[in-house]
């Protein structure tokens, strides 16, 4: 049997729920890593398809594996269960239908240095292992030594440039997670919880590194939950992500950046807005807003954004800033006809 030290360098959390067709490949890819100083924390989220037997077979042959079982409560709760038990200096995540390239952990450990978070690239493949996309963010290091630098990194690199914010493409310092009680938001309906977790970790990080490593293989399955989420409007979930982030910012003294936090709220929501822009569903934004549980917070941030023209211009050009405020005004009033008229006037004036 393979043994591990009491406190491994990396803890890898893999939640699984009815993943009998993919869990074996996932676990094998981790156990076969060239880097050996890790533990594998598997969380059974109430599986009923035989996944548990596959996992138990691996557990009996490798002492680096620990398994925890719970009733089915979703990926956020399962990951939180894993966090409660990890021992490593750093924490990584892997989804049960994805897998690691052989040298992934070795590459990450060689690059992490004294950074608090490591962002990596990834390779998106289909279920026949054909490459769909390979991200290509360049190697860069960022010092988040003050509040403004941190918020600028969140806006510029994470929310605008799309530096991969999925937790499975990151490496986190465990002490930051544990000392600050950072957990996945159960209110997100299994959508956007990754982003919320990453953003809250960034508030405490002193430095982050973007790595060119792309040896995480993210598998797209036709009809999977991730595919379905590409079309479904999830404004309530993303509003919860923004709300949790905002509340943590207030607790740690970011209150003077209220207008920048309103910009972050808009960027968090933008993916959901974009699903409706230029489509027949666009006039139904008011209907989607009505589905938001905490509309008070949503409207609070929208009103604050309307007073943030100067701050928006720090991150974009004046034309885009005005477009954002025009759209924000529509979000506030929900009057489609008024928005069409104001948009027509606006574009005529700037043409």
Give the SSE map:
Layout (H helix, E strand, L loop, with lengths): L9 E7 L6 H9 L6 E8 L5 H9 L5 E6 L4 H9 L6 E4 L5 E2 L3 H9 L4 E4 L2 E4 L4 E4 L5 E4 L3 H14 L9 E4 H6 L13 H10 L4 E5 L4 E5 L4 H5 L5 H17 L6 H19 L8 H6 L4 H12 L2 H5 L4 H16 L2 H15 L1
Parallel strand pairs: 1-2, 1-4, 2-3, 6-11, 7-12
Antiparallel strand pairs: 4-10, 5-12, 6-10, 7-8, 9-11
Helix pairs in contact: 5-10, 7-9, 9-10, 10-12, 12-14, 14-15
Q: Can you walk through the features of this model?
A:
Mean pLDDT is 90; it is low at 1-5. α5 packs parallel to α10, α7 (193-202) runs parallel beside α9 (235-251) and α10 (258-276) packs across α12 (295-306). The protein has two domains: 10-229, Spore Coat Polysaccharide Biosynthesis Protein SpsA, Chain A (Alpha-Beta Complex), CATH 3.90.550.10; 235-350, no CATH class. It has 351 residues and is α/β, with parallel strands linked by helices. The longest helix is centred in the last third of the chain and has 19 residues, at 258-276. It has helices spanning 23-31, 51-59, 75-83, 104-112, 147-160, 174-179, 193-202, 225-229, 235-251, 258-276, 285-290, 295-306, 309-313, 318-333, 336-350, and strands at 10-16, 38-45, 65-70, 90-93, 99-100, 117-120, 123-126, 131-134, 140-143, 170-173, 207-211, 216-220. It is globular and about 70 Å long. The protein has an eight-stranded mixed β-sheet, with helices on both faces. It has a four-stranded mixed β-sheet with strand order 5-12-7-8. The chain contains 15 helices and twelve strands.
């Amino acid at each position: 049997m393979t043994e591990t030290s009491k406190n491994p360098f990396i803890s890898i959390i893999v939640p699984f729920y009815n993943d009998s067709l993919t869990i074996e490949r996932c676990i094998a890819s981790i156990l076969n890593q060239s880097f050996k100083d890790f533990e594998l924390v598997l969380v059974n989220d109430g599986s009923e398809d035989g996944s548990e037997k596959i996992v138990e077979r691996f557990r009996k042959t490798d002492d680096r594996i620990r398994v925890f079982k719970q009733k089915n409560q979703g990926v956020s709760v399962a990951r939180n269960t894993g966090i409660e038990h990890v021992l490593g200096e750093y924490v990584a995540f892997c989804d049960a239908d994805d897998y690691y390239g052989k040298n992934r952990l070795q590459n990450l450990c060689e690059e992490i240095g004294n950074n608090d978070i490591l962002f990596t690239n990834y390779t998106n493949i289909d279920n026949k292992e054909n490459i769909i996309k390979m991200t290509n963010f360049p190697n860069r290091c960022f010092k988040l030594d003050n509040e403004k630098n941190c918020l600028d990194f969140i806006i510029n690199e994470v929310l605008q440039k799309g530096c991969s914010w999925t937790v499975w493409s990151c490496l986190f310092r465990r002490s930051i997670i544990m000392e600050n009680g950072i957990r996945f938001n159960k209110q997100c309906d299994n959508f956007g919880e990754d982003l919320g977790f990453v953003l809250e970790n960034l508030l405490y990080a002193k430095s982050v590194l973007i790595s060119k490593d792309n040896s995480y293989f993210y598998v797209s399955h036709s009809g999977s939950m991730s595919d379905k989420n590409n079309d479904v409007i999830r404004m309530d979930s993303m509003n919860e992500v923004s709300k949790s982030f905002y509340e943590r910012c207030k607790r740690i003294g970011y209150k003077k950046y209220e207008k920048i936090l309103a910009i972050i709220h808009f960027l968090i929501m933008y993916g959901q807005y974009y699903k409706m822009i230029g489509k027949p569903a666009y006039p139904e934004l008011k209907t989607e807003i009505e589905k938001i549980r905490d509309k008070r917070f949503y409207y609070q941030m929208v009103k604050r954004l309307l007073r943030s023209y100067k701050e928006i211009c720090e991150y974009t050009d004046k034309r885009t800033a005005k477009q954002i405020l025009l759209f924000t005004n529509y979000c506030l009033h929900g009057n489609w006809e008024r928005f069409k008229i104001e948009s027509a006037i606006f574009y005529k004036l700037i043409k």
